[in-house]
Amino acid sequence: MINWNAQFTQLIRKTNQAYWGNWSLSSEITPGAVGILDPATGLFKLISSEIPGVSDGNFIRTQVSSDWNAMTSDVSRTEVEVDLKGEAEDPETGVKATAGVQVQWKMGREGSMVSKCALDAESVLNNPDAVLGQNLDWLVQRAAQSGMGSDGRIAQGFGVITSVLFAKSGLNVGSMAADNTFSLTGTASGVHKMLGEASGKGSFTSTSESKSVDKHLWPSEAGVLASGSTPLAFTFASFDGRLLLPRWITHISAFQLVIRNSNGGTYIVDISLQYDTPRGRKSHQTTVSGGLSASIGDIPLDASNLVLDLSFRGVFSSESKRLQWSSPRGQWVGGVRHVDLYGVWPGETRAVDVEAGVA
Fold first, then answer.
1. Closest Cα to residue 260, out of 340, 146, 154?
2. Which domains does the chain have, with CATH numbers?
3. What is the pLDDT of residues 33-74, one digit of tens each?
4. Which helix (H) or strand (E) holds 6?
5. Is residue 122 within 8 Å of 164, Cβ to Cβ?
6. What is the pLDDT at residue 147?
7. Of residues 185, 173, 180, 174, the one with CA closest to residue 211
8. More exposed terminus of the chain, fewer Cβ within 10 Å: N or C?
């Protein structure tokens, strides 16, 4: 059986590393909702739709004007004009239309998927450390009641939806068979608006598929306009005990830093990592030769102010590089950070923070 939500989440994480997908467009995905998130499936079990004392004023809502287009590599799209025979009415304008369009997606295999939407806005919790910290005792109580905490501590997987990406309209369609097609038909303006290719409120008149599909459309019915926006993706904050993990995507017990000197470089590089913890300043030292990698693990989840110093050894002097992270809890999504080293002696050297894409 295909886990559509897990597959959708992996698809959108190619460009949005901390997002969870909402494949079924479930209305339970709301800003500030409290619940349990299964990292294997991405399915969210709602415990409470809100936190006492947290209101809409704690969230920053930003309009998003771009369209959303995510699909697996074996999906292709075609569009043709069709005759609606004057039977279709655009629900936004009330005008009956004769000329229409049919957009068709060809899906090559079982599990192929397409997500095409008109984005609306993103709602983000402002200052989650402070807001959730003020409500920590209430969250601890609800976690214990849900079997996700004890002794005043919260287990990872229990937490709060901290941001939601909303769509005005669109569709999520997955193929349950190979060599399948799915078609969306309607007025040209209605279909293009629905798919985020024109401004306005979208609609459709009919859908069809050649074989079985798993489909979720917004609006969910033909010939009507959507009643508001629908949640498409979200971010989630969990806890390790009483420590907030603001961009949680999987269970982690410690952070790990991987330094890769395997990109054709020839320098020997001396590595020094220092960071603060509530128990004092900590440090690690190691060395990595060209063609090899080094790993520093067991970095505690409450570490902060990380400073990585890299010294590329030369004959008479060394060349130094420095990378810094103030809070890996928020920056190191998934718990692992990679740094790639470059340089052929005696030439120029570089150190690249891979996840951030900066040198």
1. 340
2. 4-245 (no CATH), 255-353 (2.60.40)
3. 999 999 999 999 999 999 998 999 999 999 998 789 999 999
4. helix 4-12
5. yes
6. 98
7. 180
8. N
